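haha ok so turns out i had the wrong file open the whole time. this is the CORRECT one, sorry everyone. sequence first:
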Amino acid sequence: MAVDIPNYRIIEKLGVGANSRIFRARCMRTGQDYAVKIVKIVKPEDAGFVEFLKSEHAIGSAVNHPAVRKVFELRLMRQRLRVRGAILFMEYVNGIPMSDKEFRSDLDEVLRLFGEAAKGLRAMHLAGFVHADLKPNNILVTAEGALKLIDLGQSARSFEAKSRVQGTINYMAPEQVKRQTLDARTDVFGLGATMHMVLTGKPIATGMNQTVSMHSQGLIGKRVSELRQTVLHRLPTCVSRMIDDCCAQEPQDRIADMSAVLERIDMARTILARPGAGETPSSRDNAGPINESVNPSDQQQPVPGKSASKKDGQEL
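then structure:
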């Protein structure tokens, strides 16, 4: 489909999805760059994608925090009084996702970044929403060390249940697949699972991702204790326990909210900054900077070349 946005020049394509594309576009009047997501209605069932864009705009407009990508404007494309598509204008972030092989940092810096993510999520929760799709591909890091949470397309109101299962298998809390009520603890699970992937290079072990059956939805989020221990023991105890507490199967057994997650992250950084305080850094910590990427099965396939995984990390 041709891309023509009045008063904007398309700089590059950032990614594609089932029925959407995302571009970097420059306003010809101001010179400001934006990330624009475009959805077009080709057949009747495509109308649902426009509704997702409307939801992303509403939620993004209600959250104002430096760690959450800003959402500016939604334009509906009409033809003969009918909606034929939509364009969502968002903040352009010149960064790479944590899933990118070029993302490299030491343990303390990674913990600092996750602390920034927790602050952004706390702002979302205070505004009455949950992200519900946390994963390395949806966390961008700039060269200056700033962090941005992106992709609010699957976000939802707190204390409500979704009508259908949405999310990425390796990061979904059990209540998501059971279509139960979502709240801040749903994102606590997702953030913990994301920390596990970034710090170990492996998805957190659950009954779902240890089986070849993609129909075993009841196993999503169900922890496999004997498998998780073989990976988590390689991390400092304060970090492995934090991840474990984030990813408890039952919401009431998890760390309660993002403020509590922040306290645990700050505590871990303090402990690790004091050699001989009882924490033994793993061999992985001594081996050098973290450089892990997400398994292709954990996310949608990126666009070859200048793809979302390189530029914007946007799942569409």
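Residues 278-316 have pLDDT under 50 and may be disordered.
again sry for the mixup
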